[in-house]
UniProtKB/TrEMBL annotation:
This is Signal peptidase I. The lineage of its organism: Bacteria, Bacillati, Actinomycetota, Actinomycetes, Micrococcales. Residues 1-85 are annotated as: Disordered. Belongs to the peptidase S26 family. Keywords: Hydrolase, Membrane, Protease, Transmembrane, Transmembrane helix. The active site is at 125, 161. Residues 1-10, 65-78 have a biased composition (Polar residues). It is found in: Cell membrane; Membrane. GO terms for biological process: signal peptide processing. GO terms for molecular function: serine-type endopeptidase activity; signal peptidase activity. SUPFAM superfamilies: LexA/Signal peptidase (SSF51306). The chain crosses the membrane at residues 93-119. Its EC number is 3.4.21.89.
């Protein structure tokens, strides 16, 4: 800034710039006068703001709403409207699952009541056909034939034995331990150690009473069956059904002859 020595006030101190001092002046372009309108401000007539020199868009004037400011609100409203629908969908799925479970349980009860039962084997009296822990499927059929494995009730338990005699049949045993029914020896390839005596306390030949069956275990040396008065013959109304298959364990799954 230029100075005029002749008009300077004598009492006003002069700034001491020192040796080699220079006045600090702004370099580069000058700033626009304060009285001018900034390029980032809205021009008269309501024109939209323009980017300033740094490439940034100036703030919108008061009272205006940004287009992006409504997006979170719209999303929140959308989420709020979808929440009840999702809840209804979950309840609907749960209801269907419960329906399937109830129907499955009902079918299982009907099957187990009128058609099939699954029994777990305990003991060794029916080896080698059944082993301790096997699961066997029994049909509720009381139409029996010689050699069928019958499930029957005895003292609130279910036992499994093989039918060898029917009402009126005469039962006896050969010297080798094979069963003789009405004078004919049975083919008992399923029997384990037929020659061993086992639990016998009745007199043979023995005639099967009316309405009853003569049953034996396949493991004759350990089985308590119709040879003993402890068990005796099986009444028709004791019969649950006939065993058709072993279903567990998988290594022992088989149809029963």
């Amino acid at each position: 800034m230029a100075t005029h020595r002749g008009s300077a006030n004598a009492n006003e101190p002069r700034p001491d710039l020192g040796n080699n001092a220079v006045e600090n002046k702004p370099k580069g372009k000058r700033r626009a006068p304060a009285s001018k309108v900034n390029e980032g401000e809205p021009a008269a007539g309501g024109e939209s703001p323009k980017p300033n020199r740094e490439g940034k868009r100036a703030a919108a004037p008061a009272g205006t709403v940004s287009e992006t400011s409504s997006e979170p609100a719209n999303q929140s409203a959308k989420d709020a409207s979808e929440a009840p629908r999702k809840a209804r969908s979950r309840w609907k799925i749960l209801g269907r699952v419960l329906e399937v479970a109830v129907v499955t349980a009902a079918v299982g009860i009907l099957i187990s009541t009128f058609f099939l039962s699954v029994l777990q084997i305990r003991g060794t009296s029916m080896e080698p056909t059944f082993h301790d822990g096997d699961l066997a499927v029994t049909t509720h059929s009381k139409s029996l034939e010689t050699g069928d494995i019958v499930a029957f009730y005895y003292n609130n338990k279910v036992l499994l034995k093989r039918v060898v005699g029917f009402p009126g049949d005469w039962i006896d045993f050969a010297e080798d331990g094979r069963v003789i029914v009405n004078g004919e020896k049975l083919d008992e390839s399923y029997v384990l150690d037929p020659g061993e005596g086992g639990n016998v306390d009745i007199t043979f030949p023995y005639q099967v009473p009316e309405g009853r069956y003569f049953v034996l275990g396949d493991h004759r040396s350990t089985s308590i069956d119709s040879r003993s008065e402890h068990l005796g013959t099986v009444a028709e109304d004791q019969v649950l059904g006939t065993v058709k298959a072993v279903v567990w364990p998988l290594t022992h799954v088989t149809w029963v002859d």
